[in-house]
């Protein structure tokens, strides 16, 4: 870490900017996770950390080590790649578990397991529009 | 050839990963190649679905679009959180019928949707092909439908189907 003071100004600025962007977004994401109220709102906040939060820190670390060691160092990119590829696994697992539980408990504003098929729940016009190609029907209560 | 070398894409990416971690040299290349080939044979025993890229040339376009959208939505979601969760729209579920059937395409769509802050992939019903999303700041449903259908799904179908 002694080399940090020998960095050229442009590199120091670039590293500082990306490090601040990455750390800042991760902090905001964690803050959102703490502040937001519903589970489904909360799963949006940490994605700040897994997208540009990670990217900012990875870019800063690539620039730092490339300048310090005077050669292009790219293996930090793998961190970004693996974080991006593995996030959906846990996120979908969590959200499906939450959805399963909310459906079982008949929570408010929860999309049904199946869009209603039986005529008692849906009028024929709604059914027709649901069959048209660009149907968007969110199932709201 | 295809029996000895069943997953070329996997082998190439494993060798590149190996070289990035271990340093670029001929020795490491050979060691990485042997490891990758054994790994590919191991994967072949599981016989997963093989991804089929029909339009390689569209991949950079997809990456550029997704990159731009991730930057934009990072700023949007960070803004909402900093304003104490106040937003123009409301957070809501949205059901989207998909025409994309290719498993690799769907996996990439899942990565795109989850790594874009503001949208979360909640559930996908493979028999009915209905995707349920959760949108953090839903103002205009048709705009989101357009985004998923025309911006991402269209490109993914071009690439994989």
Automatic annotation (TrEMBL), chain A:
Residues covered by region (Disordered): 107-141
Superkingdom to which the source organism belongs: Bacteria
Membrane-traversing stretches: 12-36, 48-67, 73-94
Entry protein name: Multisubunit potassium/proton antiporter PhaG subunit
Keyword Nucleus: no
Keywords: Membrane, Transmembrane, Transmembrane helix
InterPro entries xrefs: PhaG_MnhG_YufB
Compositionally biased residues, Polar residues: 132-141
Keyword Iron attached: no
Automatic annotation (TrEMBL), chain B:
Subcellular localization: Cell membrane
Main location: membrane
Membrane-crossing residue ranges in chain numbering: 7-24, 30-49, 61-84, 104-124
InterPro entries the UniProt entry points to: Cation_antiport_E
Tree of life domain: Bacteria
Any Pfam family hit: MNHE
Topology class, membrane: Multi-pass membrane protein
Keyword field: Cell membrane, Membrane, Transmembrane, Transmembrane helix
Family to which the UniProt record says this protein belongs: Belongs to the CPA3 antiporters (TC 2.A.63) subunit E family.
PANTHER family: NA(+)/H(+) ANTIPORTER SUBUNIT E1, NA(+)_H(+) ANTIPORTER SUBUNIT E1
Record-given protein name: Multisubunit potassium/proton antiporter PhaE subunit
Organism of provenance: Nitrosomonas eutropha
